Amino acid sequence: MIIRWTYAFIDRPAARLAAAGDFWTAVTGTRLSGLRDEEDEFATLLPERADPGVKLQGIREGNGGAHIDLCAEDVGELTVLARRLGAAVVADHGDWTVLRSPAGQLFCAVPWHGETVRPPVVSGSRLDQVCLDIPPSRYDTECAFWAGLTGWTRRAGSRPEFTGLRPPAGFPVRLLLQRLDEERPASAHLDLACADVAAVRARHEELGAVLVSEGAHWTVMRDPAGGTYCLTGRDPETGALPDGGGQGTDAG
Quick one: which of 35, 133, 168, 215 is 20 to 30 A from 180 by CA? Predict the structure, then answer.
């Protein structure tokens, strides 16, 4: 097994990084580490008595979104595999690498530092999923790429436009691939598994988030930093839908 841990990255405009940090630490029951890198663009959301699974990045262009970091004991091995499967290297930082998937989604191969303890459920929800929004012409290729890269269990989602990739037990972040209805650039957003979507929505609104739209089993929200994410009706402990059918989710 090459991949040993995962991180969900919350990408938000650098000018709104403080607002993003305040909101997402409150949502996840964490505290923010000090800012890192030459431009103070990275921070980690630190849980109590667990290893982190979420990080924050300030970006200089665009409105932000999300990406996943894949942690490996041998970053070079993971990078070689990703390139063999169709990824391109965007930046080689020596001990970690920024890559682009065949459909254009950025992700990182980074060192594993021994993380093993998944962050807990907080107030009935858990940030546990990065959803990749893929244009229809690249969807099959992208599903094959991520399944091959991770080696995770591939499962059909609750709707035909979803494919879920379930990591080994205990990993903090999984992947969901969503086939878009139109041809537009690939992007990504975060999903939270919620025992009670309405209750979690109310708490998030108290913290400054606003409703964007509602779907059959999901609610799209916008955080105080301007980024969209989804509250999904799944078991926060297992990630499964209420009927137990599949590990994917209805997330717009």
Answer: 168
